[in-house]
């Protein structure tokens, strides 16, 4: 009988998979600031020795890139899905994008929090900012399309509307708590209603 195929070595300390390592790193970055967190701090947080941390983590910047990609990939998917919706009005596509952006923030709050604190201090952060600008531009296009079809008021610039909409969504990182009294579905309903009732064309 042939020997069973050997399994590839599992990275990370026993009891830690890569997802858990990333989650703990993001928590630490949010607590101390990315620039204020050293690899020694991360090793201590994970229970590794300082010399052993590089056997488990490629680099601090790689962890940052992974964390930012979690938020950016999901937000990008929301915008692309809304933009490519068939059979719906631009107004409906825009409402859908805002609603689902709230859902992403609730589901990935630590990663989105980290994304919102990026200032462009490294190539990884500059790329994240580039992707955020693309999302902003796509949302502004959805706003303009909704204005053009007469569903939204035309006296506020679309790029300003998109910034205000995302500003409302992004403010959730400051006060929303997953274990709090506000249900995520209720929250997304409330934000969408408040935002769009005030933007509807008279």
TrEMBL record:
Keywords: DNA-binding, Transcription, Transcription regulation
Molecular function per GO: DNA-binding transcription factor activity; transcription cis-regulatory region binding
DNA-binding segment(s): 38-57
Residue ranges annotated for the HTH tetR-type domain, each copy included: 15-75
SUPFAM superfamilies from the UniProt entry: Homeodomain-like (SSF46689), Tetracyclin repressor-like, C-terminal domain (SSF48498)
Classification via PANTHER family: HTH-TYPE TRANSCRIPTIONAL REGULATOR BETI, HTH-TYPE TRANSCRIPTIONAL REGULATOR RUTR
Protein name in the entry: Transcriptional regulator, TetR family
Organism: Nocardioides szechwanensis
